[in-house]
Design goal:
GO molecular function, one term: DNA binding
Largest sheet: 7 strands, mixed
Protein name: LysR family transcriptional regulator
CATH class of one domain: Alpha Beta
Family: Belongs to the LysR transcriptional regulatory family.
Pfam families: HTH_1 (PF00126), LysR_substrate (PF03466)
Keywords: DNA-binding, Transcription, Transcription regulation
Structural class: alpha/beta
Order of helices and strands: HHHEEHEHHEHEEHEHEHEEEH
Distance between the termini: 63 Å
CATH architecture of one domain: 3-Layer(aba) Sandwich
Shape: elongated
Number of helices: 11
Helix content: 40-55%
Strand content: 15-25%
Length: 299
C-alpha cells in the first residue's frame, strides 16, 4: 500500500467513476482500476459496491477512506514541516447558507493572516448533509445548526448564538410583535432546515396564523422583500448584518428570548487540528464582532 493508491481510492470515492478519478490523479482509467484491485487484494476486502452506479463505497470502504484522507493530509503537512514551509494545502469546509455570506468570509480573512499559504474549498449546504460529509472525511469541518444529530467520532462546539429578530418596513417602530404579525403580510422562509422549522414553531406557539404574501427559500430574498416594503418576517440577526441604516425596522422577537445557535463540527481526531483550532478562534472572534455590530442597528 502506498500514498498513490490512497489518493486514487479517495478520487474514486469522491467522483463515483474510474474515468473521472483518472483525470484527478493523472492516470488512465485502466491504471486506476488496477490500483483499486491491487489495494483490495492487499486488504482482503472489497471497498466498493460495484452493483451501483455511480460507484459507491461499502461500509469497509467508508471506514478505509476516512483513514486514507487523514493519512494523505498528514503526509502533506509533514512534508511542509520537514522542508521548513508553512501550513499549506486546502481546507475543505462546509457552512449553512445563513452564515456563508458574512461570518465565514470574514473569518477566512483572519485565517489568511495566520495561514497565508492555505486555500479553502467551501461547500454551502444543509446541516444534516454537511455533518454527514464531515463524518465521511469529505469535509474537514462545517458550521452547522444546533440540534442536528452528531455521530460518534465528531464533536460540535458553539460559535454563534443570536436572537431571532422581527423585521418590517421602515415606519413600524413602537409596535409589538403581535401587532406587526397581525397587521402586516408575512414573508415565510420555507426550506428544510432547522431555522425554518424553528420559526414555524415560534409562530405556532403564539397561536398566530400570519397572512402570507410570499414564500421563499433564501434568507437574502426574505430580507430584500421586507426592505422593498412587501411585509414582515422573522430572521436570525446575522441576516441584517451590514444593512444600510434605516432600510428596515428590526426588533428582537419575544424580547430576545428566542435564539438560534450554530457551531463548528469536526472529527475528534484530525490531522488538521492546528488549522481547525485557528478556524474555531477566527469564527468566535468574527461572530462576537458581528453580534455587537448588528445590535447597534436594531430599531
Amino acid at each position: 500500500m502506498d500514498l498513490r493508491q490512497l489518493q486514487t481510492v479517495i478520487a474514486v470515492a469522491d467522483t463515483g467513476s474510474l474515468a473521472s478519478a483518472a483525470g484527478v490523479v493523472n492516470l488512465t482509467p485502466s491504471a486506476v482500476s488496477q490500483q483499486i484491485q491491487s489495494l483490495e487484494g492487499e486488504l482482503g476486502v472489497a471497498l466498493f459496491d460495484r452493483q451501483k452506479r455511480p460507484l459507491q463505497l461499502n461500509a469497509k470502504g467508508e471506514e478505509f477512506v476516512r483513514a486514507a484522507r487523514d493519512i494523505v493530509q498528514t503526509m502533506a503537512e509533514t512534508r511542509m514541516i520537514i522542508s521548513g514551509g508553512r501550513t499549506a494545502g486546502v481546507l475543505n469546509f462546509g457552512a449553512i447558507r445563513t452564515v456563508s455570506t458574512h461570518l465565514v468570509p470574514e473569518a477566512l480573512v483572519t485565517m489568511r493572516q495566520k495561514f497565508p499559504e492555505l486555500s479553502y474549498d467551501m461547500h454551502v449546504g444543509m446541516s444534516e448533509v454537511l455533518v454527514s460529509n464531515v463524518a465521511a472525511g469529505r469535509l474537514d469541518a462545517a458550521l452547522v445548526a444546533e440540534h442536528v444529530g452528531v455521530p460518534a467520532g465528531l464533536v460540535w462546539s458553539p460559535i454563534l448564538t443570536e436572537p431571532l429578530d422581527i423585521i418590517a418596513p421602515p415606519g413600524n417602530a413602537g409596535k409589538s410583535d403581535i401587532l406587526l404579525l397581525r397587521d402586516l403580510p408575512f414573508i415565510r422562509y420555507a426550506t428544510s432546515v432547522p431555522l425554518a422549522r424553528q420559526i414555524a414553531t415560534e409562530l405556532s406557539r403564539l397561536a398566530i396564523t400570519p397572512r402570507e404574501i410570499s414564500v421563499t427559500n433564501t434568507m437574502p430574498a426574505v430580507v430584500g422583500m421586507v426592505q422593498a416594503g412587501l411585509g414582515v418576517a422573522l430572521v436570525p440577526r446575522i441576516a441584517i448584518y451590514n444593512l444600510r441604516p434605516g432600510s428596515l425596522h428590526s426588533q428582537p422577537f419575544a424580547n430576545g428570548k428566542i435564539t438560534r445557535c450554530v457551531g463548528l463540527v469536526q472529527r475528534q481526531v484530525s490531522s488538521r487540528s492546528k488549522v481547525l483550532a485557528g478556524l474555531h478562534e477566527a469564527m468566535l472572534e468574527r461572530a462576537g464582532m458581528m453580534n455587537r455590530s448588528a445590535a447597534v442597528h436594531i430599531g
